[in-house]
Automatic annotation (TrEMBL):
Belongs to the janus family. Its EC number is 3.9.1.3. InterPro entries: Janus, Janus_sf. One of its GO terms (molecular function) is protein histidine phosphatase activity. GO terms for cellular component: cytosol. Pfam families: Ocnus. It comes from the Eukaryota. It comes from Hirundo rustica rustica. The active site is at H43. This is 14 kDa phosphohistidine phosphatase. Substrate binds at K16.
Length: 115
Protein backbone atom coordinates (compact mmCIF):
# COMPACT_ATOMS: atom_id res chain seq x y z
CA UNK A 1 0.00 0.00 0.00
CA UNK A 2 3.00 2.27 0.33
CA UNK A 3 2.93 2.81 -3.44
CA UNK A 4 -0.39 4.68 -3.14
CA UNK A 5 -0.24 8.29 -1.98
CA UNK A 6 -2.61 9.29 0.83
CA UNK A 7 -3.54 12.54 -0.88
CA UNK A 8 -3.84 13.69 -4.48
CA UNK A 9 -5.59 17.04 -4.75
CA UNK A 10 -5.24 20.09 -6.97
CA UNK A 11 -2.66 22.63 -5.76
CA UNK A 12 -5.12 25.55 -5.80
CA UNK A 13 -8.82 26.42 -5.95
CA UNK A 14 -12.13 24.95 -4.85
CA UNK A 15 -13.02 21.51 -6.13
CA UNK A 16 -14.87 18.27 -5.44
CA UNK A 17 -13.20 15.49 -3.45
CA UNK A 18 -13.94 11.93 -2.36
CA UNK A 19 -12.76 9.80 0.53
CA UNK A 20 -11.92 6.30 -0.71
CA UNK A 21 -11.25 3.12 1.28
CA UNK A 22 -8.69 0.77 -0.25
CA UNK A 23 -8.65 -2.86 0.79
CA UNK A 24 -6.99 -6.05 -0.35
CA UNK A 25 -9.55 -8.57 -1.67
CA UNK A 26 -10.69 -10.90 1.10
CA UNK A 27 -10.03 -8.38 3.86
CA UNK A 28 -6.69 -7.69 5.43
CA UNK A 29 -5.09 -4.28 5.44
CA UNK A 30 -7.16 -1.27 4.51
CA UNK A 31 -6.50 2.43 4.23
CA UNK A 32 -8.38 5.62 3.41
CA UNK A 33 -7.17 8.05 0.75
CA UNK A 34 -8.30 11.50 -0.43
CA UNK A 35 -8.67 12.44 -4.10
CA UNK A 36 -9.89 15.78 -5.47
CA UNK A 37 -9.71 17.81 -8.66
CA UNK A 38 -11.29 20.73 -10.49
CA UNK A 39 -11.41 18.51 -13.58
CA UNK A 40 -14.30 16.52 -12.06
CA UNK A 41 -17.74 17.90 -12.82
CA UNK A 42 -19.26 15.29 -10.49
CA UNK A 43 -17.84 13.24 -7.60
CA UNK A 44 -18.28 9.96 -9.50
CA UNK A 45 -15.86 11.22 -12.17
CA UNK A 46 -13.10 11.12 -9.55
CA UNK A 47 -14.05 7.60 -8.46
CA UNK A 48 -14.24 6.43 -12.09
CA UNK A 49 -10.60 7.51 -12.51
CA UNK A 50 -9.28 6.19 -9.16
CA UNK A 51 -11.03 2.81 -9.14
CA UNK A 52 -9.34 1.29 -12.25
CA UNK A 53 -5.93 2.64 -11.12
CA UNK A 54 -6.30 0.96 -7.72
CA UNK A 55 -7.70 -2.28 -9.20
CA UNK A 56 -4.53 -2.55 -11.34
CA UNK A 57 -2.55 -2.43 -8.08
CA UNK A 58 -4.72 -5.18 -6.60
CA UNK A 59 -7.03 -3.14 -4.35
CA UNK A 60 -10.79 -3.01 -3.97
CA UNK A 61 -12.15 0.53 -3.66
CA UNK A 62 -15.18 1.86 -1.86
CA UNK A 63 -16.19 5.51 -1.90
CA UNK A 64 -17.00 6.57 1.68
CA UNK A 65 -18.46 9.93 0.63
CA UNK A 66 -17.47 13.27 -0.77
CA UNK A 67 -17.51 17.01 -0.40
CA UNK A 68 -15.47 19.99 -1.49
CA UNK A 69 -12.00 21.25 -0.72
CA UNK A 70 -10.93 24.88 -0.87
CA UNK A 71 -7.14 24.88 -1.25
CA UNK A 72 -5.26 28.15 -0.80
CA UNK A 73 -1.57 27.31 -1.23
CA UNK A 74 -0.42 30.95 -0.88
CA UNK A 75 -1.90 31.27 2.63
CA UNK A 76 -1.33 27.55 3.40
CA UNK A 77 -4.98 26.92 4.22
CA UNK A 78 -7.34 24.10 3.32
CA UNK A 79 -11.06 24.06 4.09
CA UNK A 80 -13.11 20.85 3.77
CA UNK A 81 -16.90 21.21 3.49
CA UNK A 82 -20.06 20.25 1.63
CA UNK A 83 -21.22 16.84 0.45
CA UNK A 84 -21.67 14.61 -2.57
CA UNK A 85 -25.19 14.17 -3.91
CA UNK A 86 -24.36 10.67 -5.16
CA UNK A 87 -22.08 9.35 -2.40
CA UNK A 88 -23.27 11.36 0.60
CA UNK A 89 -21.07 13.39 2.95
CA UNK A 90 -17.62 12.06 3.71
CA UNK A 91 -16.46 12.16 7.33
CA UNK A 92 -14.62 15.47 6.94
CA UNK A 93 -12.76 14.96 10.24
CA UNK A 94 -11.16 11.81 8.77
CA UNK A 95 -10.31 13.71 5.57
CA UNK A 96 -8.65 16.48 7.60
CA UNK A 97 -6.48 13.99 9.51
CA UNK A 98 -5.30 12.49 6.19
CA UNK A 99 -4.62 15.96 4.72
CA UNK A 100 -2.60 16.93 7.82
CA UNK A 101 -0.14 14.12 7.09
CA UNK A 102 0.62 15.62 3.68
CA UNK A 103 0.23 19.34 4.44
CA UNK A 104 1.98 19.51 7.81
CA UNK A 105 2.47 23.30 7.83
CA UNK A 106 -1.10 24.17 6.76
CA UNK A 107 -4.11 25.38 8.71
CA UNK A 108 -6.76 22.77 7.85
CA UNK A 109 -10.39 23.10 8.93
CA UNK A 110 -13.70 21.44 8.14
CA UNK A 111 -17.39 22.21 8.53
CA UNK A 112 -20.78 20.92 7.40
CA UNK A 113 -21.38 24.17 5.51
CA UNK A 114 -22.67 23.74 1.97
CA UNK A 115 -20.60 26.66 0.58
Amino acid sequence: MAAVRDVEIDPEGTFKYILVRLQRPGGGEQRDIVRGTKAAEFHNHIFEKVNPEMEKLGYECKCLGGGKIEHNSKDKKIRVFGLSTGYGKADHSVTVEILKKEYTDYEITWSDDKK
